[in-house]
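User: Show me a protein chain along with its predicted structure.
Assistant: Here is one chain, sequence first, then structure tokens.
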Amino acid sequence: MRDTKESRLLLVLLIAIAFALITVDIRGGENSPVDGARQAAATVFGPIENGVSAAVNPVGNAVSAIRDSGERHDRLAALEKENAALKAKLGSDDRNRSRLKQLDRMLKIAGEGQYGIKGAEVIAIGAAQGFSWTITIDAGANDGIKRDMTVLNGDGLVGRVTTVGPDSATVLLANDPDFTVGTRMEGTDELGFASGQGDRPLRVQLLNGKAEVKKGERLVTFGSQADKPFVPGVPVGVVSRVDPSGGDLTRTLYVTPYVSFTKLDVVGVVVQAPKKDPRDEVLPPKPKPTPTPTVTVTVTPSAGAGTGATGRPQQ
């Protein structure tokens, strides 16, 4: 239809009639005069509408299913991500629990020895091709760390600081072949020098070649002048073997260190030496000997022992 004056007038008329019918229907309520026409229209167009709805509903349901499936996929992905985060958190918590235990032991040693320490974390190990046993810690000059400071952990002597940067430092481990520390035997006070041997026990040369030493005896650091590089009383290790005395001026011992140098994580740098030598106070309690079970055998004499055939004592 072309847009003419008559067509515009017809459109306005139809709109006016529509509004009039709507007004009459609203005012009439249930007795609306157009209710019959509405029912007739419903009778005519209802089946068509239902058919269209039936045809459209599967598509709508499919779309809804796809949408719900996508939402379920998103929820599953979110749950999987949350589970992964929880697993990571649990792993982190396990590591934190381990670190807390290490820190507790280290603080106990510091308290018993009256050492002022700066805690640090091991962030790197020395290059294998350098044939040296070193670690790098995340504390340096900005934290008060200086060269030739003693490094320990919750088990005992770790090493000494050799190089210091602003925020990190290098520690030479006690098992390095270039490492030497003065030692003192628990109880007897026999002095010596312990040297590293890599993954083998420390080698200790006692100054007294006639010293009586037994397997299982323990050593601590003797200490250095002005407490550098070593403060006194830090646990070193346990005697695992004693070389036979051959009349030499010194006595050779082999000592298993308390520290596991391949499992270092949290360490402490002694930034303040104790006011007095803690002696053997920092050593862990001695293990209690395992009691040896005893077997008692009771001999019961036989009924016929010491009697004759008649049951009377033999003459």
